Amino acid sequence: MVRTACDACHRRKVRCSGGQPCANCSQATLTCTYHAVPQKKGPKGSRAKVISELRETQRQTNRHKIRSYSPDSSFDFNTSPLSPMRRRNPDVLSQQMIDGCIEFFFRHMYPTMPILHKGRLQEKVAREIDQSIEAYCLITSICAFMMIQPRMSLPGRPVGVRTNSDDLVSGKFTTASSLLEEVLRLRKAIDYIENPTLESVQTSLFLFACYFGLDKHNKAWYHLREATTLAQIVGMQDEPSYLSTDPVESIMKRRLYWLLFITERAYALQRHHPLTLHATIELPNPDEVPGDRQIINGFLHMINLFRPFDDTFIGLWNKARNDCSTAWLAQLQQQLSDALPPKLNSTETQAADIVTSQQWLRTMVWQLSITNGYLSSTSADSSMTFKYPIEIAKHLMADVRGLPQQALEVHGIGLIEKLFDVACTVTDVIACVPLDSSIFEIGPLEYLNQFLSLISNLRGGGSRFLPLLRAKISENLPSMATPVPKAVMPIKDEYVDEIASPLSTKPAPLVHPSPLVIRTATASLSDPSLVFSDISPGGSNASTPLGTPTVAAAIPHSMPRIQFDGRYG
DNA sequence: CCCTGAAGGGGATGGATGTT
DNA sequence: AACATCCATCCCCTTCAGGG
């Protein structure tokens, strides 16, 4: 018996002589390949999977038999002539799903991730998916990422009948998990680390995005670092590497590098991680792809925003150094203001991310300022005063108000987390800084109400962040009468397909603020660094085009870890 | 119709691995 | 260590298409 049969012999179920080419392939003039990936052997998961499966199907068919007798037509799929090990499992990744996911990606995600060419990707699906494990992994990881988008429906499932939101959610998340597992399994079989391609980098980025969305931040960071490391192995940080490749690929590669650049910086801020990528190559050109002008302009704005958050800032942020100054911080705030033109030349979707990121980054700089004791109540530069976050909140609300809800929702949990970060900072300011309320046309508390209202209305985060924000507010501002925003719409379930949502009329469970123990800032204002040292001096949300990282960071570090709802963890 | 060869279903066998 | 379970290989056999 041969150790591994070649792909053709496996498919033909004939004895394989081994070797290259094997006797059968040689006789049949076939290309003899050994691409098939052996599956892991031995039992996995719960015991007696097959038996329980059989039992379950028998139970179901027995029940059906009573009512009607119909020929079973559910086994006519999956006739693709692939070796069984590489064969797509149509239950998990059907053609329909691939098409649906690609369509969704280019309709909703492309403006924030303009790193794939639609035609090329479709060609890859048609030609390469069965031939190349790299291509298969890329497409599968894209589909997994689409599956965790709040607005994405599960392709191929009848929407409506018998689908309640829980089914849909768990269906989508189960699908996403299977797809992720599939990618990781297949990747083990190829030496993508020693011989990475552009696809490897893209796949790692999508894996990061998936785990980010699933709130699994160790895995997320691992894959982000994998993406940046592979990018460096491929040489993406060197300008000359963009000359030799095919023009379309070169364009997408350049954009990918900059997307990684932005993403890494946002994540570094949120999670106190170091940077690996720097601005070493030319920026993308807005005019190189017809129709992409606006999108790339928006993309350039994002790059501009994150560019100042270099090793120096991150070093200070992570307390690896301490040589900052008032002037430098004030200049950084100025840079953030200058990074954007008065009128954004971008899509609305991007504008949502850009303005939120800008205000969020200002909040980060402000936090660094206060942590290092550089703020003063009398500074002429408002960015160096204690009340600055209230100004930030005001701007943010003004910027966001003009945008359609959808433009905000597309960014998923990431954007909501940024909003949450800013709101938390504002809460702390209101709690700790004596405010002369006459200065503000609208009271700062009103901004908090607006944040609550906004977050509760956005799909994809309300149920995770709203209770946290409520808890934070009631802990720090007990005087603020139950800060329930007026006209709160029922929080729509984050993952309910929009078509299906009219059917699931049950208002999503309003999560009550759990009895969180938030350590309140108790020190006096005479020592501002103490006051705010436990307000996320680092851990806030960053906005990432992928959605921004997370909550826990924005919460005082001493706070116990919170189970949000256990569904995804 | 028969002959031939390919396809592929069924299943024996055995290796690998998780569970007890 | 014994056992259960899953997976891969490949033999055996039936089916079927194409040529005569």
From TrEMBL:
GO terms for molecular function: DNA binding; DNA-binding transcription factor activity, RNA polymerase II-specific; zinc ion binding. Gene3D superfamilies: Zn(2)-C6 fungal-type DNA-binding domain. One of its GO terms (biological process) is DNA-templated transcription. It comes from the Eukaryota. Keywords: DNA-binding, Metal-binding, Nucleus, Transcription, Transcription regulation. Residues 5-34 form the Zn(2)-C6 fungal-type domain. InterPro entries: Carb_Metab_Trans_Reg (IPR050797), XnlR_reg_dom (IPR007219), Zn2-C6_fun-type_DNA-bd_sf (IPR036864), Zn2Cys6_DnaBD (IPR001138). This is Zn(2)-C6 fungal-type domain-containing protein.
